[in-house]
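Need tokens for this chain, all 193 residues.
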Amino acid sequence: MGRRVVVIQGHPDPAGGHFCHALAKAYADGAAATGHEVRRIDVATLDFPLLRRKREFDDGEPPAAIVDAQQGIHWAEHLLIVYPLWLGTMPALLKAFLEQTMRPGFAHEIGERGWKRLLSGRSARVVVTMGMPALVYRVYFGAHGLKALERSILGFCGIRPIRHNLVGNVEAYDHAARERWLQKMDALGRAGA
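Here are the structure tokens for all 193 residues:
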């Protein structure tokens, strides 16, 4: 029996054509080929404003594009989030999308007894492409941007387990290296993992 999977493409270029796009497509195609239901969210094509005040985050009405994304995330059993590493973390547009999407009342509730994780029961895989070697990002820089996403956003909302793939030295890849990553993503998609 297949899983319900949402693929969140976090590259901010709406023109597409980047390796992030190819990785997300390989995963989605693999998942669909083996009976998983797949929905896609391309953050770069969505129309939404930046949140500028706490009250907007807490009580504001999310725009239609965000409501649609929330419905997809609520429907999903598993999320794939793909993005390029920019200045040690996710691009600003993806962060803005997550701020709009993971609002109180949808992703979590804060009450007298602390917070309630409203997205429990879902798992996630995060795929990050980068120009530097993945080991350098992980060891020297501590993968702080990835940890913030996993702990402070996804984990805070109850999503677990969270697995990740760091795709380092991406600009130096030849066709064979890119093809190996695409095959790996296809296999992960087929497994719904």
